[in-house]
């Protein structure tokens, strides 16, 4: 039995903030005691004490949207499960939910097995899987039931990327009907990919090939239209819906209207939409390619609607959609044709810090920070209260965070295996100091002490926002 105490910090959860000492035993949190009642925690016999005075004590981050080693556009996302989960730990994230992919014409099981093989023995922190449905048919619909039973309880479909991951409305409706009966949650990439492909073809024919055109053809209206359509299809199926990587104000409005009707509709946004904009896609010398992702970055005016959505619960979750491609050799595949730039951006290491900066800047409260980054994603994807909070019985996934430290984000100092930072030079107030994953110190005052293979696969319950 190993016992650790974290003493004197401000424990922040989605529900409350209290100065408390935290007792950890065999990988779990077993007790909290108010710091001003030292008689309670003074009797704890521990092997190790972590001094958190002047620091925050936070639940480890839950990043519910990552793509380690994802195949896309003839290449693979640059972070492996090993490098990507190590970078996540550096950034205070202790659980990722990555996307296993069903290949067209293949079984869900084959895709899931392949993703287990990539992750097993390689992760520094705990991990779980969603399943991407690329081929909805009788047998894959049946397999959805089996996956829900074994802890893969959410399924992503794409209204974008015709010929690759795309599902038509009939396939979406069928999968939603299945989710309505088996308790699964459909996660939607909501962009009208058929219309977008027409605009892509027209743009290229006109000689418009720069990265910025990626943002011009993937119009906000086509995100809003797809979001609206996904919501209506979910209503017809009687299924809940989670819309991923929401970027446009008009799409937030669709989610808000559905939620005001009382529908079980949820939304996620990502740091890139909160902190970056089409100004970045517009950078000269093909630098804009670093900022190509889908949904695309939007004009800066959209950010206010995203922040408001996060404050008012029109949006519930901030995940990264971490899908890094190096500028050299990968993003460069799209020189002369923006449609060949691999879609995706790095960020798994930066999410907790960027959102803390949002607390400093007054966009969200400290507790809302922990809600959108830890508790809500854990609840949404059936991991709560094992993950996402600090409470007796929870896994001891804990971050000691120094709110007064200052840092500058940079590719020179980050740990993601990608040759640029989307936030190069950005000053951040606050920094992760120490991280525990199931009671093991994996980052010790900014020295990495974790190891590949410490992280375990976590089977999930169904969405905990539903009755
Ligand atoms: O550009 C992105 N988001 N790449 C990853 C795949 C996806 O659509 O989430
Ligand atoms: Zn997507
Ligand atoms: Zn994604
Ligand atoms: Zn590289």
From TrEMBL:
Residues annotated as signal peptide: none
Transmembrane segments: none
Co-factor requirement: Zn(2+)
Organism expressing this protein natively: Streptomyces physcomitrii
InterPro entries according to UniProt: Amidohydro-rel, Hydantoinase/dihydroPyrase, Metal-dep_hydrolase_composite, Metal_Hydrolase, Metallo-dep_Hydrolases_sf
Family from the record: Belongs to the metallo-dependent hydrolases superfamily. Hydantoinase/dihydropyrimidinase family.
Keyword set, alphabetical order: Hydrolase, Metal-binding
EC numbers for this chain: 3.5.2.2
NCBIfam families: D-hydantoinase (TIGR02033)
Domain Amidohydrolase-related per the UniProt entry, residue ranges: 56-442
Gene: hydA
EC category name: hydrolase
Name of the molecule in the record: Dihydropyrimidinase
GO molecular function annotations of the record: dihydropyrimidinase activity
Source domain of life: Bacteria
Pfam family, one: Amidohydro_1
């Amino acid at each position: 039995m190993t016992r650790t105490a974290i003493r004197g910090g401000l424990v922040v959860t989605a529900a409350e903030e209290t100065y408390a000492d935290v007792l950890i035993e065999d990988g779990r949190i077993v007790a909290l005691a108010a710091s001003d009642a030292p008689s309670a925690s003074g009797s704890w016999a521990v092997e190790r004490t972590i001094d958190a005075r002047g620091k925050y004590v936070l639940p480890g981050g839950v990043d519910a949207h990552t793509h380690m080693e994802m195949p896309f556009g003839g290449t693979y996302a640059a972070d492996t499960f090993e490098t990507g989960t190590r970078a996540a730990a550096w950034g205070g994230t202790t659980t990722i939910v990555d996307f296993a992919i069903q290949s067209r014409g293949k079984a869900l099981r084959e895709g899931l097995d392949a993703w287990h093989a990539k992750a097993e023995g390689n992760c520094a922190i705990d991990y779980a899987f969603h399943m991407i449905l690329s081929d909805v048919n009788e047998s894959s619909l049946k397999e959805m039931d089996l996956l829900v039973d074994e802890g893969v309880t959410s399924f992503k479909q794409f209204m974008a990327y015709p010929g690759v991951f795309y599902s038509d409305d009939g396939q979406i409706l069928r999968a939603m009907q299945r989710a309505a009966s088996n308790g699964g949650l459909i996660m939607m990439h909501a962009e009208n990919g058929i219309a977008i492909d027409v605009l892509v073809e027209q743009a290229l024919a006109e000689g418009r090939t720069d990265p910025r055109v990626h943002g011009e053809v993937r119009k906000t209206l086509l995100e809003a239209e797809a979001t609206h359509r996904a919501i209506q299809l979910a209503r017809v199926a009687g299924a809940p819906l989670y819309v991923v990587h929401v970027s446009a104000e008009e799409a937030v409005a669709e989610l808000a209207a559905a939620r005001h009707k009382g529908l079980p509709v949820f939304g996620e946004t990502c740091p890139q939409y909160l902190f970056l904009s089409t100004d970045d896609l517009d950078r000269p010398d093909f630098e804009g390619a670093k900022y190509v992702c889908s949904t695309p970055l939007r004009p800066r005016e959209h950010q206010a609607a995203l922040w408001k959505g996060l404050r008012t619960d029109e949006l519930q979750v901030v995940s990264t959609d971490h899908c890094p491609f190096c500028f050299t050799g990968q993003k460069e595949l799209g020189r002369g044709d923006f449609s060949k730039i691999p879609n995706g951006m790095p960020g798994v290491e930066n999410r907790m810090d960027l959102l803390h900066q949002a607390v400093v800047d007054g966009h969200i409260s400290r507790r809302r920070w922990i809600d959108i980054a830890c508790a809500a994603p854990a609840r949404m994807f059936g991991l709560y209260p094992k993950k996402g909070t600090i409470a007796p019985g929870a896994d001891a996934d804990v971050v000691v965070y120094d709110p007064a430290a200052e840092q500058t984000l940079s590719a020179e100092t980050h740990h993601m295996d990608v040759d640029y930072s989307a936030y190069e030079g950005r000053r951040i107030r606050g920094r992760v100091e120490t991280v525990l994953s199931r009671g093991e110190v994996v980052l010790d005052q900014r020295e990495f002490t974790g190891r590949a293979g410490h992280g375990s696969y976590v089977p999930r319950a169904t969405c905990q926002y539903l009755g």
